Amino acid sequence: MKKKMYFFGSLLVVITMAMTTAPLIAAEHSHGGHEWSYEGEHGPAHWGDVKSDYAMCKTGKNQSPIDITSTTKTDLPVIQFAYKPAPLKIINNGHSIQVNYAEGSSITLNGKSYQLVQFHFHHPSEEKVNGKSFDMVAHLVHKSADGKLAVVAVLMKKGQTNKFIETLWANMPAEEGKEAAPANVTIDALMLLPAQRGYYTYTGSLTTPPCSEGVTWLVLKTPLEMSDAQIDQFAHIYKNNARPVQPQASRVVSESK
Question: Would the pTM count as exceeding 0.85?
Fold first, then answer.
């Protein structure tokens, strides 16, 4: 930045010349203020080139999501859900509608505990099962004490009105980037789970940049229902915020019996 000084009588005025930063500001907002998106030059095919931190999106060998077509049925451990009601904190983060969850809720898998951090939605579902895509999916993101991630995916299809979703959408913030925390609105993430909790599991990655690998994926086999109107309400904001499926390669997908 450059500064110029002018004297008006005894008053000294310093004017900062910000011309050199203007192009940077313009570039930052050239695609909605986000470094990546789901279409165009900043879409999934180009995430790995947006910045060096996102290289794994291009070079990773164990990426997500995948089309689950070949599985090995086995006696998988039951996912132990210990979710508690929490105050609703919901945000449109520019890539999805996300709910940030209060501390104290978790899952336990193979004796290891993962705390529920947040959940968010994709339209259509990112995961496919035998080539079939679902109308939406919810991703419940958990983190262990040693920093490992486990994501529970709840597939969603057209059907009856979902009361839990109804509460979320009724409090969806109109302004992007601003978290809404409506007074006296409490939610319970257990209501986002189907009664039957058999699942597929494999090791993959985050489905958004930086596409970090080493994520344990737990895709519940039984989908939940949402009404056409509820799906359309989300699709009005995010017509498509799903990363295309990635190669399964040599990875084994285990399926609970």
Answer: yes
Q: Measured between alpha carbons, how far is 138 from 226 in angstroms, rounded to an integer?
A: 12
Distances (CA, A) of 53 to 10, 204, 211: 51, 18, 9
C-alpha–C-alpha distance, residues 35 and 200, integer Å: 32
97-149 pLDDT, tens digit per residue, is 999 999 999 999 999 999 999 999 999 999 999 999 999 999 999 999 999 99
Q: For residues 71 and 140, what is the distance between their CA atoms, to the nearest angstrom?
A: 22
Catalytic residue among 42, 95, 120, 139: 95
Is the separation of the CB atoms in 246 and 66 below 8 Å?
A: yes
Give the residue carrying structure tokens 């979710």.
83
Tokens for 75, please give them. Answer: 């006696």
Q: What are phi and psi of 93, to 5 degrees?
A: -90, 10
Q: Which two tokens stand for residue 64?
A: 């997500």
From CA 5, how far away is CA 16, in angstroms rounded? Answer: 9
**Catalytic residue check, 95:** yes
Q: Which fold has domain 60-256?
A: Carbonic Anhydrase II (3.10.200)
